Amino acid sequence: MLRTNMKNLVMMSVQGKVANPWAPRSHEVDSKGKPFLLPSVGGIVYNIKVGDAAFGWQADHIEPCVSAILDEKNRFDAPNRGFVFYACIGNEAIIKAGDAKGKKGVVTGHHGGAEHVMIDFSDGVLQKLALDDKIMIRGFGQGLKLLDYPDIAVYNLDPHLLQKMRIKKKGKKIQVPVTTKIPAELMGSGTGAMQMGSGDYDIMTTDKKFIKKYNIDKLKFGDFVALMNHDNLYGRSFRQGAVTIGIVIHGDCLLAGHGPGVSTLLSASKPIIEPVIDSNANIAKTMKIGRFRKK
User: Fold this and answer.
1) Residue 185 domain-assigned (yes or no)
2) pLDDT of 221-277, one tens digit each?
3) In terms of residue numbers, what domain contains 192?
4) Is residue 3 one of the residues assigned to a domain?
5) Are residues 215 and 133 in the same domain?
6) Which uninterrupted H or E stretch holds 81?
7) Residue pair 200/190 in contact by the 8 Å Cβ criterion
8) Which of 104, 203, 264, 290 could form a disulfide with 284 if both were Cys (CB 3.0 to 4.6 A apart)?
9) Domain of 47: which CATH number?
10) In total, how many domains does the chain have?
11) CA distance linking residue 156 with residue 266, whole number of Å
């Protein structure tokens, strides 16, 4: 088991509501110059969950299951930033109002730009949930450290989920199960951003032959992936030998420079994180949620 500083972490409640879905004002233009008009972020998505394919939907940047926010009018202000920052992947979410009051879910991602937090709930809960319903999240995980690996940074990760990810020690390295290794040249929108404690950045999917070669077109929502030669310690950037482990949090996109979004979980600027391919490396399978939630 990985030794951590979990006992020193702060657990803090943050509360938001279901985010209203966005709609474009007009057609957008894809990377081939073709216009499109499709569903996008936000809302209660009844038929897409972690464990489902991140490709193939008639949508752009689609977020699985439920998207939550604190302040839709001021999404970049301090209160909403706090909501996104404290909500770590794997945290418990509790509905505090409405017909689904008291039901629990799991945080599965946070989406930069939209400043949404994605939460997985069961189908039965989705049928009762309303757009005005309040959702409280027990924020727990920011400040997490691996005591035996001080050169590895940890962000946005509930320590209980960390221990379920089947990470193994290998001398001065750790081995992390991932479904896919993402080549550095594919990381697009969000590269250069400094907000590792929130948001995401996108795997560019314009070159269909290239992404098929690396099985990126097989990605699923909730997959743990390795971003090769990408350093997320003090900004999202290319660095030879660096490895970042992230989680796929939104679906494919048609815009140039975009694609499935990845939130940061672990990162090292040195080659001390060794990704190991494992088709089961997905939060839905790890936590028995989404498409793998028991009926």
Assistant:
1) yes
2) 999 999 999 999 999 999 999 999 999 999 999 999 999 999 999 999 999 999 999
3) 153-283
4) no
5) no
6) helix 78-86
7) yes
8) 290
9) 2.40.10.170
10) 2
11) 9
